[in-house]
Amino acid sequence: MHINDAVFLEDLCPKFRLRQWRKSIHRFTGKSCIYCGKPSESIDHVLPRSQGGLSTTENCVPACLSCNGDKSDENALYWYRRQKFYDPRRAMAIRAWLEGDLRLAIRLLQWANPNFKKNNNNQTRDQSKYKAA
Ligand SMILES: [Zn+2]
To answer: pTM here?
Structure first.
């Protein structure tokens, strides 16, 4: 798709833009939950909306429904520290993500999950198949 077409479509249809944005968030982690590594099914606000958290890429991370639901309106970093699957590398990744350093966040997530890169590549390749189906 040509970049100008994308802008045009986004202007025409805000829902399309929201969907593209949500997709791009999941793509960053290879569709895995930033907290536990399971498949991400939702977008979680690290700083909850009830506490003034914005729907920006820096504040929104891919999360599975279980983590998203359990965390509820808590601050993500406090909540995450109490979890059985707590991994300091993931905690660092979440902090980097919050600071807008997605590249560092992704590198830390890859470190936390050695299969991450392989899975991510497979999913990227498979995406065209899903679209065609
Ligand atoms: Zn999770």
So the answer is: 0.76
